[in-house]
């Protein structure tokens, strides 16, 4: 064993995938309703995506950010239009944690403060400030704990206003819909109240759309259900459909200057080609409409299963709540029914994050498998 052993793993070795299907080294087919932690958006090995990446690496895969990169510019242009933020600018990096790290840093540069408001059960990544803003002390090392972060209950406007009134808050970071924490989300009243209060106090509002973005919620970003405009929006996961890429969308009120942010790999030719292809597929195949149609069908079928006590989330970012820990259920689903699903820090929640391109038939297969696993 030469790998640093930090992941509890299922004994399955995928070697091939297409759309929402995955095959292991023994030829067994699986239905992927988890997308490797919500990463697969356009579908595994989509032919247009494969073509875009293959052609790009055959030309030039990487050069640094000190030369012109028209693919990066095309990506920024397409992303700001597709997401409804035409006047925002894009900074590219390599992962979700890195996106949040840069967003928090930008906020601090902006108003010169350093205290962060985050929310109970939040997950923002595993690096320095991102992990400090994550509500899970077991993954925060003493080195990271030096950041000033206060965790408030979601949807408690009064607690929020009391904290903001202290006058030392730099930024507020909140997920569009909580992912790892278990699919809880702010109400429209809450999102609107915090957005308005941040604006008045010159506190930077960061929307972490790393898991809930890129169409997964049924809108491009989950916060767009609440009619607010954050100052900074962070992206990763579905953005590259498996190719590592992250980014932050930045409001025009922030002025860029040379060296303010930077990275070696972020936005390289290959990553940009992958992300551009994902946006094209989402648009060409109307995947956001598909999310809404299939998400509704999924909820309808889920509602007919007596063991499902509650359905959380939106679009194809869903959680099925049971009255028992789902660890064994997930094992039955993967080993007996050959279906990938996810868990959350809420132990009785089965997390569903399939590719955005799934069909009604895929949903039928999922529920047949779920019913079998519940009976077994
Ligand atoms: C909401 C949210 N933010 C940030 C991250 C961190 O992303 P990454 O693992 O790419 O660093 C995750 C990952 O699960 C996430 O769900």
Strand and helix layout:
Blueprint: E1 14-18, E2 21-24, E3 29-32, H1 35-38, H2 47-59, H3 70-82, E4 89-93, H4 96-111, E5 115-119, H5 128-132, E6 149-152, H6 157-164, E7 169-175, H7 188-201, E8 204-208, E9 232-235, E10 246-250, H8 269-284, H9 287-302, E11 310-314, E12 317-321, H10 327-335, E13 339-340, E14 349-352, H11 360-375
Helix pairs in contact: 2-8, 3-8, 6-7, 9-11
Attached small molecules: pyridoxal-5'-phosphate
The CATH superfamily name of the largest domain is Type I PLP-dependent aspartate aminotransferase-like (Major domain)
User: How many separate domains?
Assistant: 2
**Helical amount:** 25-40%
Tally of alpha and pi helices = 11
Q: What are the low-pLDDT stretches, counting only 5+ consecutive residues below 50?
A: none
Helix/strand/pairing class, anyone? alpha/beta
Please give the CATH architecture of the largest domain: 3-Layer(aba) Sandwich
First-to-last CA distance: 34 Å
Tally of DSSP β-strands: 14
Rounded mean pLDDT is 98
CATH class category of the largest domain: Alpha Beta
CATH topology of the largest domain: Aspartate Aminotransferase, domain 2
Q: SSE order in H/E notation?
A: EEEHHHEHEHEHEHEEEHHEEHEEH
Overall geometry comes to globular
- Strand order in space, largest sheet: 4-10-9-8-7-5-6
What's the quick description here?
The chain has 376 residues and is an alpha/beta fold. The protein has 11 helices and 14 strands.
Walk me through what this model shows.
The chain has eleven helices and 14 strands. The mean pLDDT is 98. It has 376 residues and is of the alpha/beta class. The relative contact order is 0.17. The protein has helices at residues 35-38, 47-59, 70-82, 96-111, 128-132, 157-164, 188-201, 269-284, 287-302, 327-335, 360-375; strands at 14-18, 21-24, 29-32, 89-93, 115-119, 149-152, 169-175, 204-208, 232-235, 246-250, 310-314, 317-321, 339-340, 349-352. It folds into two domains: 14-46 and 286-355, Alpha-Beta Complex (Aspartate Aminotransferase, domain 1), CATH 3.90.1150; 47-284, Aspartate Aminotransferase, domain 2 (3-Layer(aba) Sandwich). The strands form three sheets. The protein has a seven-stranded mixed beta sheet, sandwiched between helices. The radius of gyration is 20 Å and the shape is globular. The structure holds pyridoxal-5'-phosphate.
